[in-house]
């Protein structure tokens, strides 16, 4: 990725340009110390003067009022705030008319910024004050007062906090009084510029110590650049939070959100005092010290998938390179490309007005449809469909271009969603709520309605990243998520009535990704790269989980690595310096998943034996995965072989005891017990009328109170429960203290012979019942 810059031969402004701002994707306003405000039209390459300011007004900062005001979308910005050196800020309309000038600070007003809704304005000045104003320019509050000038200000993502500079310090102050203020030393020199992005919630700062830095919203340093030759005079996030630009003397740099640099340009501009990104994030403009305005387009983005490599070579042209046969195709578009995504055999490209869908099998005939909103901020793909996110909402399309659904939830803000906070699979869409970060909304992809009982998934702490698995049955769809403490959890998305357990499967997890062809999860936790070959194990046999993992030392990935792809058995990881590392994992677990999903149990066992024969260490992992998969699919014969192979003899014996049970219902209940689902096992037995079995299960688990409760309720086997309780207490040499047991034990003689006879009768009855139901079933089949 690089910047393609353009400068006019002669500058249009006579003096230095102090600030620039975009109205639409093709129109820019610039202000200069020559008191002129100029308008630049990029489509016609015309430059016109909008207005000449009074001679004593030297502009310092400009910010257009945001487009979406009160939920209504405006196609372009209508007015802007201009701060100046005479202590005033001016509200100016698009035509250049000064609507209002307000005396704001003693000394120059160094920066002015609207919040994301356009309902409040923050200004900072040489007098060290931070003030909040209403949209019409009425003073609401003086947020802070200090002895040094404040050079830059930025609103927090939720417009509840304000970030401003104080010498070498950065300060985050909430608008609410009595809330803790966050302050930290950020640079060794004066901080000149700062910016806070609402999508990724990261903070940028640039200073006279010639460095730029990236921080999280708690003030933790994520990246610090090497010192440049000159102070960094400007810095700005692109709208979607994926890139940022850095300006200095004769220097323009394009960086990834994690801090590493894509490209460095050395234009003849003098210092770049201000950088503004266009609305669609495809280009930026810089205000230059020598009177120029520099324009720079982001080109040469790259997308990779399997054997295809796609590059945006010009604003409206993509090049497709098939690395197997070296075939090259050129894709031409009518308008400039804004976003693209390549996955699952399809390339989805959004331009300013249309969406193109290409199949990797045929690059000549794309499917094209028009877009309502225009600026797409995110494209996510699944195997059967893809999601477009723009300022207006979430839209799910099939690869044939048909709109499938458009999910909505209360207080939805789509402009701040990214790939970490939205996840898509073939049947489910998950969105993390920004208003309450502990909540994930889960939708049925095809209808757009909330899944299950309509309640969102709620966690105990704030969630940072979410990911849905891609394969398997809808009823078994799982979601993995990382919370603020960097713990990794997994849970099922289908939630009808009963609360599904949220289970923790990892700690200190930096990044995660599901495989595209089978439900294998990989992540980097602390110093280890981990692959969970069968995460569902936690619901089947929790003790097995550690045996189903593959772990590798992750020190080669350096600090803060990110997983980019997990396709087939290849994982691509981007290190903090921007370099890519490719890892291969064993192909066998993927094959095992395929066999199990098509119920080829014999083949699965054969595969595990083959892996054992190849004398690798992973045969234990494979057998453990197979054991968990077999129990999950109620195939106890395979489970027995697998457990025997990993030496879990107690479980083999239990599985054998399940086989000897008289009826199918009992066997099912004991399989549920095996996975630790005691409540479900008991419910199943009671529903099918096997009261004695339900009581016996509770006795075996030493749930004495529940066993007695069931016996009394169904007026049967009270003596059995009391007998087993008595024996239990005698074995431990204890006396009965439980009042209920004492109450029922009065006048009840325990006769073991009677009890045993009763139990045998129950089992015989159950056998008989199972046999009759089997013959009934058989006769029904014959009649049909």
From TrEMBL:
Domain of life: Eukaryota
WD repeat ranges, renumbered to this chain: 102-134, 184-216
Chief location: cytoplasm
This protein's UniProt keywords: Cell projection, Cilium, Cytoplasm, Cytoskeleton, Repeat, WD repeat
Compartments it resides in: Cytoplasm, Cytoskeleton, Cilium axoneme; Cytoplasm, Cytoskeleton, Cilium basal body
Quaternary data: Component of the IFT complex B, at least composed of IFT20, IFT22, IFT25, IFT27, IFT46, IFT52, TRAF3IP1/IFT54, IFT57, IFT74, IFT80, IFT81, and IFT88. Interacts with IFT88. Interacts with IFT57 and IFT70B.
Name used for this protein in its record: Intraflagellar transport protein 80 homolog
């Amino acid at each position: 990725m690089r910047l393609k810059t353009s400068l006019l031969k002669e500058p249009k402004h006579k003096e230095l340009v102090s600030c620039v701002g975009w109205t639409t994707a093709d129109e820019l306003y610039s202000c200069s110390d020559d008191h002129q405000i100029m308008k630049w039209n990029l489509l016609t390459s015309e430059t016109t003067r909008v207005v000449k300011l009074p001679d004593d007004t030297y502009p310092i900062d400009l910010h257009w009022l945001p487009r979406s005001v009160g939920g209504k979308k405006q196609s372009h910005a209508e007015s802007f705030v201009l701060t100046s050196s005479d202590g005033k800020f001016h509200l100016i309309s698009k035509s250049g008319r000064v609507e209002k000038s307000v005396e704001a600070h003693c000394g120059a007003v160094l920066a002015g910024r609207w919040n994301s809704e356009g309902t409040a304005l923050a200004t900072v000045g040489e007098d060290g004050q931070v003030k909040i104003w209403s949209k019409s320019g009425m003073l609401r509050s003086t947020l802070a007062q200090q002895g040094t000038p404040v050079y830059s200000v930025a609103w927090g993502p939720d417009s509840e906090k304000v970030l401003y500079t104080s010498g070498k310090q950065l300060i985050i102050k909430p608008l609410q009084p009595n809330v803790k203020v966050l302050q930290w030393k950020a640079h060794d020199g004066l901080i000149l510029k700062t910016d806070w992005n609402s999508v990724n919630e990261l903070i940028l700062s640039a200073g006279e110590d010639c460095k730029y830095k990236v921080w999280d919203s708690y003030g933790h340093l994520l990246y610090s650049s090497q010192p440049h030759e000159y102070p960094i005079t400007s810095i700005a996030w692109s709208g979607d939070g994926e890139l940022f630009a850095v300006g200095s003397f004769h220097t323009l740099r394009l960086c990834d959100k994690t801090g590493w640099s894509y490209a460095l340009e050395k234009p003849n501009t003098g210092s770049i005092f201000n950088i503004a990104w266009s609305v669609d994030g495809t280009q930026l403009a810089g205000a230059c010290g020598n009177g120029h305005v520099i324009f720079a387009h982001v080109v040469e983005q790259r997308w990779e998938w399997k054997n295809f490599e796609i590059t945006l070579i010009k604003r409206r042209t993509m090049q497709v390179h098939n690395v197997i046969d070296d075939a090259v195709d050129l894709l031409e578009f009518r308008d400039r490309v804004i976003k693209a995504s390549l996955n699952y055999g399809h390339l989805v490209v959004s331009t300013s007005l249309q969406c193109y869908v290409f199949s990797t099998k045929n690059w000549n005939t794309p499917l094209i449809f028009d877009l309502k909103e225009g600026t797409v901020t995110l494209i996510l793909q699944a195997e059967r469909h893809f999601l477009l996110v723009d300022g207006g909402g979430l839209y799910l399309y099939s690869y044939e271009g048909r709109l499938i659904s458009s999910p909505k939830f209360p207080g939805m803000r789509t402009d701040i969603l990214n790939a970490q906070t939205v996840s898509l699979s073939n049947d489910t869409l998950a969105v993390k709520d920004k208003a309450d970060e502990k909540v994930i909304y889960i939708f049925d992809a095809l209808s757009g309605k909330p899944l299950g009982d309509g309640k969102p998934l709620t966690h105990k702490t704030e969630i940072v990243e979410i990911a849905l698995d891609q394969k398997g049955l809808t009823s078994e769809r799982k979601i993995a998520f990382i919370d603020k403490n960097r713990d990794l959890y997994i849970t099922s998305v289908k939630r009808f009535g009963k609360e599904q357990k949220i289970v923790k499967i990892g700690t200190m997890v930096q990044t995660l990704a599901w495989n595209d062809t089978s439900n294998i999860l990989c992540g980097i936790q602390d110093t280890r790269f981990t692959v969970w070959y069968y995460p569902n194990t936690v619901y089947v046999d929790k003790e097995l989980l550690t045996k189903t993992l593959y772990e590798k030392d992750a020190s080669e990935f350096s600090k803060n690595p990110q997983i980019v792809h997990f396709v087939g058995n290849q994982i691509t990881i981007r290190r903090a310096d921007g370099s890519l590392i490719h890892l291969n994992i064993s192909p066998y677990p993927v094959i095992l998943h395929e066999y199990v999903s098509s119920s080829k149990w014999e083949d699965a066992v054969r595969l595990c034996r083959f892996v054992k024969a190849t004398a690798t260490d992973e045969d234990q992992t494979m057998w453990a995965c197979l054991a968990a998969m077999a129990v999950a699919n109620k195939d106890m014969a395979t489970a027995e072989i697998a457990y025997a192979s990993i030496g879990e003899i107690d479980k083999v014996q239990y599985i054998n005891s399940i086989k000897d049970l008289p009826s199918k219902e009992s066997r099912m209940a004991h399989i549920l017990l095996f996975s630790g689902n005691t409540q479900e096992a008991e419910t199943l037995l009671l529903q099918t009328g096997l009261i004695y079995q339900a009581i016996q299960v509770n006795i075996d688990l030493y749930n004495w109170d529940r066993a007695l409760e069931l016996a009394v309720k169904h007026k049967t086997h009270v003596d059995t429960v009391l007998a087993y309780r008595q024996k239990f207490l005698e074995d431990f040499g204890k006396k009965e203290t439980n009042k209920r047991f004492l109450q029922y034990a009065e006048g009840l003689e325990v006769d073991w012979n009677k009890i045993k006879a009763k139990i045998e009768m129950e089992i015989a009855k159950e056998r008989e019942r199972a046999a009759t139901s089997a013959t009934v079933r058989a006769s029904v089949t014959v009649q049909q």
